[in-house]
Design brief:
Order of helices and strands: HHHEEHEHEEEEHEEEEHEHEEEH
Strand order of the largest sheet: 4-3-5-15-6
Helix content: 40-55%
CATH architecture of the domain at 164-263: 3-Layer(aba) Sandwich
Oligomer: single chain
Structural class: alpha/beta
Low-confidence stretches: 300-304
């Protein structure tokens, strides 16, 4: 196996094109094409289907990609083990998270991690859709969830509980009144996370475990927490969001927390990893960093 061939093939597959891989690696496209062609010739198998506009993996290409990634990861781990004695972390970490977590939590942390580890490159995938960790080559995924995640081959590490609260602008409360009980929320204008029609009510819980389901009138549905927060600040309705997302606006007086004795959800944040075997040092370092730092950003304590 020629690791150079494998390296260039993996980059073409991950970047979804020869030109994109060449730009990312800073080398001529012809060099990458030559390596991939030689790889296919040595295997006597076509790994890529390509034309002037589209590139896709064949079934053989998908199988080869999975094993080639594993081989390259092993080599990266071997090199890192040698460098570990010099206390220098090198290599890359691919991190996946949702848009909200990226904007309001991870954005505060990545500069710190990079400053502490100048030899590490971070590749951040941001999407509200669940990534295929193995298929997409993701090292770590940050996932928010209300219920227990299903059992799988993925390694799961719970990090923090993140209470959600209700927020509205002072102007909205002045016009519509400040609710003192969950019942007084009924029928209020709501700004809800998730663009697909789902439920039209808030599910609340107080410290004693009492619950309340309160119907509301949806004015805006969105996958983007920043859009919902801005709409709430403009006085368009009441929004349920994590406190850390609205921290700055509350401090500036642009938003007010409603019903302080009640929460609008207690989801958890967890870290997911494809395997505990052969994890490169830079990935281990980011896992440890996130488990320590994420709870401080979301204003909660780590789960032990």
């Amino acid at each position: 196996m020629d690791l150079n061939h494998a390296f260039y093939f993996v980059n073409v597959a991950e970047k979804q094109g020869f030109s994109a891989a060449a730009r990312a690696l800073g080398i001529p496209k012809s060099r990458i094409s030559r390596h991939v062609r030689q790889l296919e010739e040595s295997l006597d198998t076509r790994l890529l289907q390509r034309n002037s506009r589209h590139l896709s993996l064949t079934e053989a290409g998908k199988a080869y990609l999975q094993h080639a990634r594993a081989a390259l990861d092993c080599m990266a781990t071997a090199e890192a083990a040698v460098r570990r004695g010099h206390d220098i972390l090198e290599g890359s970490v691919t991190l996946s998270c949702s848009v909200g977590v990226a904007q309001f939590a991870v954005s505060r942390l990545l500069p710190l991690y990079l400053a502490e580890n100048p030899g590490v490159v971070v590749r951040q995938q941001v999407s509200n859709a669940f990534a295929d960790l193995i298929g997409d080559g993701v090292d770590i995924a940050i996932r928010g969830h209300v219920r227990l995640l299903p059992d799988s081959q993925l390694i799961q590490r719970r990090v923090a509980v993140v209470p959600w609260h209700l927020f509205a602008s002072p102007g909205y409360l002045e016009s519509h009144g400040t609710p003192g009980t969950p019942e007084e929320l009924e029928g209020r204008a709501a700004l809800t996370l998730g663009w697909r029609p789902d439920h039209d009510s808030w599910s609340l819980q107080d410290a004693g475990g009492t619950t309340a389901t309160v119907p509301h009138q949806v004015r805006l549905r969105s996958d983007d927490m920043a859009t919902l927060k801005q709409a709430a600040a403009e006085g368009l309705g009441i929004v349920a969001l994590p406190h850390y997302v609205c921290r700055d606006e509350v401090a500036a007086g642009q938003l007010c927390r409603l019903l302080p004795d009640w929460t609008a959800g207690l989801p958890e944040l967890s870290l997911l990893m494809p395997s505990r075997k052969g994890v490169p040092p830079q990935v281990e370092a980011m896992v440890a960093f996130l488990r320590k730092q994420l709870p401080t950003v979301v204003q909660d304590s780590p789960i032990t």
